[in-house]
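LOG
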Amino acid sequence: MKLSKTNKIIKNENRVTDLNELVVCKQTTTINHSEIGNKERSFPFQYIVHQWKTNIRVLQTVGVLLISMFIPMLSFSQSIDLGKAENFVLFTSNGAIDNTGSSFVDGSMGTDVGAVTGFETSTVTGSTEIANAATEEAIDDVQSAYDQGAAMTATLSPDHAPTFGSDETLLAGVYNVDAAGSLEGTLYLDAEGNPSSVFVLRFGGAFSTGASSKVILINGAKAVNVFWLAAGAVSLAANTDMKGIILSLTGAVSMGANVQLVGRMLTTNGAISLNKGSVSSPKAAPAANRPLPINMLSFTGFRDNQNIILEWSTASETNNDYFTVEQSFDGKIWSPIGNVDGAGNSTSQIDHSITDRNHSEEITYYRLKQTDFNGNYTYEVCNQY
């Protein structure tokens, strides 16, 4: 028996309407030239003014409609300027930065008032700046960045519910919550193929995440264009997989055990704490300088009745968020069959697997896609079954 499955693809298209269609009440009129001639002779000035006003109203209608069509797209691409604060992945204008256990910080840390402690067994690729010219410059820029985000007009009315996630998908825009808010479960941020899409999630109070919450960027979304603004403390619970720039106004920022953040943690006034976590700059290094994310040992599969079980092993993994196994029947058009979490950072052999329960009797090709925490991805070997 041959098994098959149907994939439905829903495509959203922005269509620029023909100008004639923008005039809602467009009419076809039979013109009597002799009558016009009589009107011009009897009321030359009034007739000219009438015709001029009519044309102006039509142009104004078209102009307003065109502006209303394009303003949302412009606002979705309006990013927040971090200024000198972009030099840091961890920064507080006034507070200590402390760490528990062995963490990974890909970038620089800075505080203008306070100490930096607990990183003796951790890996920090950038510098540590304390009360110097670099930190002084960043103070105003963190405040300015927060103010810029706070002034943006929300694109959703009424405001979003206080809790994000639970397999929710958001398109680019500014999402506002007047009070405290949270992230629970998985939140997908969908750029719809536009890598310049900007996501701003703004809270009028504290912001927190539930344990093992996850933010997944899809269709070109980038962590550098995701902003979380909280008018208070920010707390990321254990095993949270977070993407984006966190901006706190006068609040402490803390990461529970094993939190993975691709982005930055910046606050105008409050302590910053890590616990065996990972913070990576959202801007990847040039490809020539970036190490390979995984060291692949094998990628194999075998048939088990109507199922295909795919297995692969890695000798090491660096900044590895997750794997995606893709399937094709012609080697040209590919579709995902599922995701498997990566190990993050590992130097020992790890075995992974996934089962394709909807396998067809046709010849089927499989390939492995690896996505790291900053959204970059690579493809590994293909297998045929």
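LOG (cont.) second protein
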Amino acid sequence: MAVAPAELSSTKARPLTAALKQALGAALLAFGLSVPILALRTEQDISNRLVLQPRWSYVLIAVLLAFFGRLLYLTYAAATANRAPRVRVRALTTRTVSAGFAQFVSVVGLLALLLYPWIALSIVGRAGAIKWIDNFGIQIMIYIMLGWGLNIVVGLAGLLDLGYVAFYAVGAYSTALLAHTFGLSFWICLPLAGILAAFWGVLLGFPVLRLRGDYLAIVTLAFGEIIRLVLINWVPVTNGYAGISGIPRPTFFGLPFNASDQGFAAFFGLEFTPLHRLIFLFYLILALALLTNWVTLRLRRLPVGRAWEALREDEIACRSLGINTTNTKLTAFAIGAGFGGFAGSFFAARQGFISPESFTFIESAVVLAIVVLGGMGSQIGVAIAAIAMIGGTEILRELDWLKDIFGPAFDPTQYRMLIFGLAMVLVMIWKPRGLISYRSPSIFLREKKKVRADLVREGHG
């Protein structure tokens, strides 16, 4: 039966009308959210009085972006849906990636990391390299190491941990207290901090052996807050909010990085510069991160690693196979916490000062976001997500040219969490399983093929 032209035009108009309605709804929602955040800015005048400065132009920009962004998305979705359907067979595995190509990419990435300080020196000079090596290189590598440590608990074992910053704090305070109380060097404090953090991981693991999902997340969140409150209130030991200062810095085989005659520069006949210490710290955290990655990959191929993945898939089936789920959970918590302790020890030695403000819940949220955004269980995905999130935060400090658009009072760093929240929403729509949405099997027969992530059950251990 033929369709009348009027009916055909009305059929085409319906999706457009629905798209406009949804776009208006998104604009209204953006208006409601942006008014309390963007519309007014509080400042103090000369008389120390609170002054409200209106910024309705920001609200207008947010509303327009929400309206047209939603409209374009719905229009594109409708146009895609109207195309002729294609029959596709969803394969269980993807095409095998060439082992030689993967090895080539790994070698190139490792060489880029090894040459990073010298590349920064050659491009921006000594003055600019201090910022790029410290704020970008070292800071990103710390979060990559934390992400790989948490990936053992969340990505491999499927145990949702919202208090990972507690082990980070245990490692940092262990290094500070051992150095101040017993006069131990960083190289002795580093393994001790990892061991103590692993011990606290076991202590956390025992009370949560019977918990799963949301209940496990609540208990781990409470554990992280308990550790932070202990650091604040145990003043005779931790010095409370004042923190601990004067933490010994790492040395190069006993050579300190200072301008003295016994320093690193004088021993090798070099001109003293703070870059020596920063380059040394960069290679130190790079070595710790690579060690974390190597141990994780080796453990995944061992029976304990396969037990973690079995626990993630189905705990009941895991028990029916005779796997001791108690030991499996405790090993995941302990090993993940140990790597967090190593990172905390390095952080304390790098800063020379620590306080409870450095170990708040937002740190756990950032590390967990890195693991989820990169793809739970994917080592390379965690590294990419850490570079995007931590490096993106630092790049926002360099966007002073935005003041020419939004005015001299505009500070892009104040909106970094808003920008990253929006970016994560877009990535989750585009890649709901993370940036790296495929997993390599631990064991394989004849041919190694990557498995789609939607066939892997995550976070249900």
